[in-house]
Write a structure and sequence with these properties.
- The protein is an alpha/beta fold.
- It contains twelve helices and twelve strands.
- α3 runs antiparallel to α7.
- Transfers an acetyl group from acetyl-CoA to L-homoserine, forming acetyl-L-homoserine.
- Its main location: cytoplasm.
- It catalyses: L-homoserine + acetyl-CoA = O-acetyl-L-homoserine + CoA.
Length: 394
């Protein structure tokens, strides 16, 4: 197994002199992406928990969402600006029990937490910036397959992902059906819908129209497009939450006076969005946000494969799709489409008032569902009779 622990220079947040935390780094060579461009000397950052079995059949891949990274579990600290985004789900005796499984999470290609992305040095030593190639979800999965090859992992016991991570999970099934035993897609879709693309485009425009964006070549400037990125995050965060959750949580409560706007009240929901916008702008690269958003817009497992059913047909493993009932960005109908396209697909439902983010916040429900899956037990269908048309498990 070839593993590199040399820390490369990568993103705006990731410099050669920064601590690597729990990350490992794996060079995977040059990558020809779908656009035809060559991305040279690609490096992927990843984290692992547990040990790979002698038969190399216990590897589990956890795919993160848009602004996530490889730090699935663990505290914030040196090298990790935020704590793990799925607390309690990986470790000794946990759902993904590291006494049994070798768990890997990869920072996605194009990201900004250690993998090659727009802020990485290009061939001339300057950050790629505006020159970084356009990526697709397929490109990202191709890169992940290269990393699996480098680690001598012939196939995954299970691939699990939510939102953008669910897109990559389904693309693994379509691109490498013989390398996945079980696939679990949470709050996700087999293709980006018109509405999802529309929301994404709005966020991209917010970043590109920031005067400090500089066409994407803002590295080394005294300021970057933090305002535009913050606006993008505010837009996105509204779609991640349900109307009822925002109503119940904030209503029309006024928190304080709007900064710089004497006499105008700042509603509590505005303060909430301001907080999340500022928080992301402090830890994420704006170019990566654009690259990853456009990759999500490209997502369609049926593209050039004869449609969704044809794309899923070669997969003989176990496919599980789990939407969130209140998700307005990735509504349950999209998971239903996957199940109709691929007979034998198992379904369940996360119940939450939260909306799309329910796959992250409803940890107990997610743990119960995934516990059934990783144990190889039949999935108990948590949809209602009216949703399924019947009452039994799928």
């Amino acid at each position: 197994m070839s593993v590199s622990t040399t820390r490369p220079t990568t993103s705006a947040l990731w410099r050669d002199d920064h601590p690597s935390g729990d990350r490992l780094f794996q060079p995977i060579g040059d990558l020809v992406v779908e656009s035809g461009e060559v991305l040279p000397d690609v490096v992927l950052a990843y984290e692992t928990w547990g040990r790979l079995s002698p038969s190399r059949d216990n590897a589990v891949l956890v795919e993160h969402a848009l602004t996530g990274d490889s730090h699935v579990v663990g505290p914030a600290g040196e090298g990790h600006p935020t704590p793990g985004w799925w607390p309690g789900l990986v470790g000794p005796g946990a759902l993904l029990d590291t006494d049994d499984f070798f768990v890997i999470a990869i920072n996605v290609l194009g990201g900004c937490q250690g993998s090659t992305g727009p802020a990485s040095p290009g061939p001339d030593g300057r950050p790629w910036g505006s020159r970084f190639p356009r990526l697709t979800i397929r490109d990202q999965v191709t890169a992940e397959a290269r990393l699996a090859d480098a680690l001598d992992i012939p196939s995954w016991h299970t691939v699990i992902g939510g939102s953008m991570g669910g897109m990559r999970t389904l693309e693994w099934v379509a691109s490498y059906p013989d390398r996945v035993g079980t696939a679990v897609g949470l709050a996700s879709t087999a293709y980006a819908t018109a509405e999802q693309i529309g929301w994404s485009q709005t966020q991209i425009h917010a970043i590109r129209n920031d005067p400090w964006f500089a066409g994407g070549d803002y590295y080394g400037h005294p300021q970057g497009p933090e305002v535009g990125l913050g606006i993008a995050r505010r837009i996105a965060h509204i779609t991640y939450r349900s109307e009822m959750e925002l109503h119940d949580r904030f209503g029309r409560d006024v928190q304080d006076e709007a900064p710089g706007e004497s006499g105008r009240p700042r509603y509590a929901v505005e303060s909430y969005l301001d907080h999340h916008g500022g928080k992301l702008a402090a830890r994420f690269d704006a170019n990566s946000y654009i690259v990853l958003s456009e990759a999500m817009n490209s997502h369609d497992i049926g593209r050039d494969r004869g449609g969704m059913a044809a794309a899923l047909a070669p997969f003989t493993g176990r496919l599980v799709v789990v939407p969130v009932d209140s998700d307005r960005l990735y509504p349950p109908r999209l998971s239903d489409e996957i199940a109709r396209a691929r007979p034998g697909t198992e379904q369940a439902m996360i119940r939450s008032v939260v909306g799309h983010d329910g796959f992250l916040t409803e940890v107990d429900q997610v743990a119960a569902l995934l516990g059934q899956v990783v144990a190889g037990r039949p999935l108990v269908d948590t949809r209602s009779r009216s949703e399924t048309g019947h009452g039994g498990a799928v």
